[in-house]
Specification:
It contains 13 helices and 9 strands. It is α/β, with parallel strands linked by helices. The protein folds into 3 domains: 105 residues, Nucleotidyltransferase, domain 5; 89 residues, no CATH class; 137 residues, no CATH class. The strands form 3 sheets. The protein has a 5-stranded mixed sheet.
């Protein structure tokens, strides 16, 4: 007899249900949302459980990893499919949800979700924290710009480093406004300082990763895009086809056809994975890049060419080949997104 368990995880308690291969409920209960408590509860049943299912959520990576380490066949499943399976339930409770998950484990009506490694999750946390501080700093900049306009004070085009100096110049004769804006400038300076700390950690992680160093050889790819792409893929073996990576990052096809008009492109939609659109655009280049395209001078990803562009490229063919050949095997220092700082990475650009 085979047995299947379903876990409906919440912050404090987890509802548990175990059914047999005929769909009969064997036992139900609750346990604290801690790996040790869940393992103790399942082992106490004395049953050999074939599959233990839990929906993807904030605690799922932690619980999944610990349950697997304890020898239990834990599976993290996709939530939207389970929502469709339980949409017809008249009464929705944690107990009924756990029972539905157990039945899904029994009949195999679920989609397995890949759980990233602990290292990948740590790097994603680093990227998200850096992005959060950066967004807060930009929000403060925009708030100061907008509020000062009401008093006729225009900052104009100014760099990030010169922003505070420009604000102080405008408020030199407005002591009352200066007293109100100075706390905002202090918070902004603290955000900049801590964002620089996280950015240096990102550069250190990129320097230590052979995969990221190789991705930096793709034209237009910096350390943020390289690390975001590497942690997003995590395990390349989970993609059957390389063309599946683009949709995984939300790069879905776009088409407009009307009469004689037929345009194809890429739409930046799909699931959000915590990176800016610029990083997503960089990942688009990575998703479409081929080994022959990683050269000293970037050619971009493959695309259709007009007849005029094709003829122009044919005329320049000999010059382009000579230009590329002169850079093969040359070592370059790749400038990263850290102002004047450079990362000491020598990349051998080969065909």
């Amino acid at each position: 007899m085979k047995y299947f368990a379903g876990l409906d995880v919440s912050l404090d308690e987890t509802a548990i249900c175990v059914v047999d291969e005929d769909g009969i409920v064997v036992t139900e209960g609750k346990a604290a949302s801690e790996p040790d408590d869940l393992v103790r509860w399942l082992v106490a049943t004395g049953l050999t459980i074939t599959r233990v299912g839990l929906e993807a959520g904030p605690l799922s990576p932690w619980l999944h990893t610990e349950l697997r380490a304890a020898g239990l066949p834990a599976i993290c499943i996709e939530t939207r499919r389970m929502k469709g399976a339980t949409a017809a339930m008249a009464v929705k409770t944690d107990r009924n949800d756990a029972r539905a998950i157990a039945h899904a484990m029994r009949v195999g009506w679920f989609t397995v979700v890949h759980v990233k490694t602990a290292e990948s999750q740590e790097l994603r946390l680093l990227l998200n924290n850096r992005r959060t501080l950066l967004e807060k700093r930009v929000a403060i900049d925009n708030e100061i710009r907008g509020t000062l306009k009401a008093f006729g004070l225009k900052l104009g085009a100014v760099t990030v480093a010169a922003f505070e100096v420009r604000v102080l110049e405008l408020l030199a004769k407005r002591s009352r406004l200066l007293a109100m804006v100075r706390p905002m400038l202090a918070a902004r300076a603290a955000l900049r300082q801590q964002c620089d700390v996280l950015h240096r950690m990102v550069l250190k992680a990129v320097r230590a990763s052979a995969v990221c160093r190789r991705l930096l050889s793709v034209p237009g790819v910096g350390p943020i895009v390289a690390l975001t792409y590497a942690t997003g893929v995590n395990d390349p073996a989970r993609f059957i086809h390389s063309r599946d990576i683009g949709p995984h990052f939300g790069l879905t096809p776009r088409k407009y056809a009307s009469g004689e008009i037929d345009r194809n492109g890429i739409d930046h939609q799909g699931r959000r994975w915590g990176c800016a659109r610029s990083a997503r655009a960089g990942c688009a280049d990575l998703a479409h890049a081929r080994p022959t395209m990683v050269r000293a001078e970037g050619l971009g990803h493959g695309r259709r060419q007009t007849s005029r562009a094709a003829s122009r490229n044919r005329r320049r063919g000999a010059q382009t080949r000579d230009h590329l050949a002169s850079h093969v095997g040359r070592q370059h220092d790749v400038q990263l997104e850290a102002g004047d700082r450079r990362l000491g990475i020598g990349l051998a650009l080969t065909r």
